[in-house]
TrEMBL record:
Domain of life: Bacteria
The species this protein was found in: Peptoclostridium acidaminophilum DSM 3953
Pfam families assigned to the protein according to its UniProt record, in alphabetical order: SIMPL (PF04402)
Biological process terms in GO annotation: DNA damage response
Stated name of the protein: SIMPL domain-containing protein
Amino acid sequence: MEKISQGKAYVAVALILAAALIAASLIVTQGFVKVKASQNTLSVKGSAKKEIKSDYAVWTGSFSVQSGQLSEAYSMLSNDAAKVKQYLVDSGIPEKSIVFSAISTSTYNEILPNGVYSNKIEGYRLFQSVEIKSADIDKITELSRESTELINQGVEFQSIPPQYFYTKLADLKIEMIELAAKDAQLRAEKLLAVTGSKPGKLRAARLGVFQITPPFSNEVSDYGINDTSSIDKEITAVVSCDFEID
């Protein structure tokens, strides 16, 4: 019966902290639940860590042209966009997944012999980006590395490293809260066992921020970390609990 009661307590802690988590829009910095005040308490921190693998990726590439004539620059950029699109389709990317940004335009001025810029416009620079979102992590990773082949086709192309995400994060956070709460309970039991005491009622629980980092990273932030550079990641949750001492 005692194990069943403890199990219910873990779930209760997880549900309380999960409610605080949702109310604070996924990441809570100081979630706090108060019960009755008492001085005969023990404060412990529990933690839980789990390895996760990204299941969604976003990749962006960009290309640009410049010309003394604006109309010519637009024509050049349009030709390059067609090459980029064809390359992506040939690489196995569905046409509906290829999203081009609006075209950005800037000017550059003539430089005088003394090195000073004049007020005369010498030409135009046009810039455009392309974005791919996909659950095919391997395809996006390969594309980000190989897409600079477009340079061989005369396209001034730049590939930006993909961003990797785990889409089931909301559900996982609730699970991590429960595991961290169980760890806090276990730590309290171990600490009090040598004195012949045991943890009693939970008086307060505080949820720390989640740290989502690359594997083996020791990076920690008071505001939490959400790494998007790595396919494989580690998520860490910390819960601080105050127990009455029986």
